[in-house]
Amino acid sequence: MTRTITSLVSGILFGLGLVISQMVNPQKVLAFLDIMGNWDPSLAYVMGAAIPVAALGFALAKRRKTPFYAASYSGPTKTGVDGRLVVGSIMFGAGWGLAGFCPGPVLASFLLAGTPVVVFLVTMLIGMAAFSVVDHHLPSQSKPA
């Protein structure tokens, strides 16, 4: 029960951060990405504030032998750059640049449920399902360990 409450509070806090920083506003995100036009640098301040907070969290986590609600830490197993990472990064960036949404903010703004939010969410889920089908047929050496 404590794990569920902690997850709920963490999710609400994350969602509030996205709303307060306006990362759920695609126009704000697109203005941030428009470095050759009417650039809005305010989201850079959001990232600048988030990085030290995250670094502190990681530093505190390193001092613990185990996480609060798991038997062990389960970080990424791959450390190199491969085709899957590059293609996924390009697709993520293209989607973010075209729509002004990425998965976290679109879920946080789902309660606003305007048509662009619903369209992005549905197409994101279709893309995830399509990747699962394609990934199932890829050779095993190209998949993460």
UniProtKB/TrEMBL annotation:
InterPro entries: DUF6691. The keyword Membrane applies. Keywords: Membrane, Transmembrane, Transmembrane helix. The chain crosses the membrane at residues 42-61, 81-101, 107-134. This is DUF6691 family protein. It comes from Muricoccus vinaceus. The lineage of its organism: Bacteria, Pseudomonadati, Pseudomonadota, Alphaproteobacteria, Acetobacterales.
